[in-house]
UniProtKB/TrEMBL annotation, chain A:
Source species of the chain: Marinomonas rhizomae
Compartments (UniProt record): Cell inner membrane; Cell membrane
Keyword Endoplasmic reticulum: no
Phylogenetic lineage: Bacteria, Pseudomonadati, Pseudomonadota, Gammaproteobacteria, Oceanospirillales
Pfam families: BPD_transp_1
Protein name: Amino acid ABC transporter membrane protein 2 (PAAT family)
Chain ranges passing through the membrane: 27-48, 92-115, 136-161, 190-211
TrEMBL record, chain B:
Keyword tags: Amino-acid transport, Cell membrane, Membrane, Transmembrane, Transmembrane helix, Transport
Transmembrane domains' residue ranges: 20-46, 191-214
Superkingdom of origin: Bacteria
Protein name stated in the entry: Amino acid ABC transporter membrane protein 1 (PAAT family)
Keyword Iron: no
Membrane topology: Multi-pass membrane protein
Pfam families per the UniProt record, alphabetical: BPD_transp_1 (PF00528)
Protein family: Belongs to the binding-protein-dependent transport system permease family. HisMQ subfamily.
InterPro entries: AA_ABC_transptr_permease_3TM, ArtM/GltK/GlnP/TcyL/YhdX-like, MetI-like, MetI-like_sf
Origin species: Marinomonas rhizomae
Domain ABC transmembrane type-1 residues, every copy: 22-210
GO cellular component: ATP-binding cassette (ABC) transporter complex
Length: 220, 220
């Protein structure tokens, strides 16, 4: 009599490492796309504010598309479009590209709000004190407007971090995909999903807590 | 560079099905929003006015909904509850998942709205002989709804976009239908491009309808 073959093995501590590593991957893809996307978004926001033609007619509708089409569709579309034009991208890179543009489209609105929240009279005053346009932008508008929209930016950051879970559709093994792999092997969905949830919570909650503290401090 | 030949014919042929699926998307988003608004209102009130377990229940719900990815929540309702022997249909999974998520986000919006109403108004309503139910339903909630109208509209757009996650749990709304056709004909790019356009149109319709409704509601 042969021993019955077991297809499923239980959850062991090594799997916790696997999940932790996957959480780091989630963190890495989010940090990368949020950093690049935020810089890009600030530039876009500045263009939206400054130029009626380049901003209002060309850029705004394009950015609007990124906000009005589900991220998952964007990812699949780009992943299948890249080979058509001869780009050879792995899931990670296409995920980063789309997440970057997605972040940029969200941040551009935030950045524009920040620039417009600074009083025009203050900017005129700084210009008449002899600051150049760029000095005015970096030393007056950035600190003041930046503080106003900081909570909104944190909101975008948290959103993108959570949305990075969708890159799993392309086959990139981040936290959610890793938990799915483990579920398939161990057949213990509740336990593993709870652990994955704790990891997500641990990534996201401190930031949102910090943001609400920051907001309270500034409301005073 | 460009030796890919596009085949749009199968897409055009299945366009009626796709539009039908788009209606399903709209339907599920509206249902989830309806549930989300009601539950979110209750959660916000519980978080602000209650003490003890009810408050902690609301806080836990809100923080989990806001700090974990929507896809994770869907998986939880799909696979996690399956561990208890509760097997929901894809429709129920996506409806509960979306409502859970929307309720969490809306609760925070509502809380902001409630905090914008001076406490004095409730006191004066009570002085005029209204009981607390009347004071809330006739004085506070109409004002709160006006404040949170635009956040609710935003959330509705998010609900439409998030319903695309149905694709991953096997529900045949717009994305699921698109994937079904894409894997039937291997025309992934074309189908997903069509889906992107339909999503864009749906979002624009939602925004337009909300603007019309706002004109009708907030005439005064």
């Amino acid at each position: 009599m042969q021993e019955p073959i077991s297809f499923f093995t239980g959850f062991n501590p090594n799997d916790l490492w696997f999940l932790g590593e996957a959480a780091l991957k989630t963190l890495w893809i989010s940090i990368l796309s949020i950093t690049v996307g935020s810089v890009l978004g600030c530039i876009f926001g500045w263009i939206l504010h400054e130029s009626r033609f380049a901003g209002g007619i060309i850029l705004a509708p394009i950015l609007d598309v990124f906000r009005s089409v589900p991220l998952i569709i964007q990812l699949v579309l780009f992943y299948n479009f890249a080979p058509i034009v001869g780009l050879d991208l792995n899931p990670f890179l296409s995920g980063v590209v789309i997440l970057t543009f997605y972040t940029a489209s969200l941040v551009s609105n935030v950045a524009r709000g920040g620039i417009e929240s600074v009083d025009m009279s203050m900017r005129r005053a700084s210009r008449s004190l002899g600051l150049t346009y760029w000095q005015d932008l970096f030393h007056v508008v950035l600190p003041i407007g930046g503080r106003t929209v900081f909570p909104a930016w944190i909101g975008v950051v948290l959103g993108v971090m959570k949305d990075s879970a969708l890159v799993s559709v392309l086959g990139y093994v981040e936290l959610l995909k890793a938990s799915q792999i483990l579920i398939t092997r161990t057949q213990e969905p509740l336990l593993i999903l709870s652990i994955a949830g704790v990891f997500y919570f641990a990534l996201s909650y401190p930031i949102s807590l910090y943001a609400s503290r920051f907001e309270k401090r500034w409301a005073k | 560079m460009f030796d890919y030949s596009f085949h749009w014919r199968p897409v055009v042929k299945s366009l009626p099905e796709l539009i039908q699926a788009g209606l399903v998307t709209l339907e599920i988003a509206s249902l989830a929003m309806l549930l989300g608004v009601v539950i979110g209102l209750c959660l916000a009130l519980m978080r602000m006015n209650m003490k003890g377990p009810l408050k902690w229940f609301a806080v836990t719900w809100i923080e989990i909904a806001r700090n974990t990815p929507a896809l994770f929540q869907l998986f939880f309702f799909g696979f996690g509850l399956g561990a208890f022997g509760i097997n929901l249909s894809p429709f129920t999974i996506i409806l509960t998942g979306l409502s859970f998520n929307c309720a969490g986000y809306l609760a925070e919006n509502f809380r902001g709205g409630f905090q914008a109403i001076p406490v004095m108004q409730i006191n004066s309503a009570r002085c005029l002989g209204m009981n607390s139910w009347q004071a809330y339903t006739r004085i506070v909630i109409p004002q709160v709804l006006r404040i949170v109208y635009y956040p609710i509209t935003n959330q509705m757009v998010w609900a439409v976009l998030m319903s695309s996650l149905g694709m991953l749990i096997g529900f045949r709304e717009l994305s699921g239908e698109t994937q079904f056709f894409a894997s039937k004909t291997f025309r992934v790019f074309e189908y997903f491009a069509a889906a992107a356009v339909i999503y864009y149109v749906i979002v624009k319709i939602v925004l337009g309808a909300s603007r019309l409704l706002a004109m009708r509601l907030f005439r005064y």
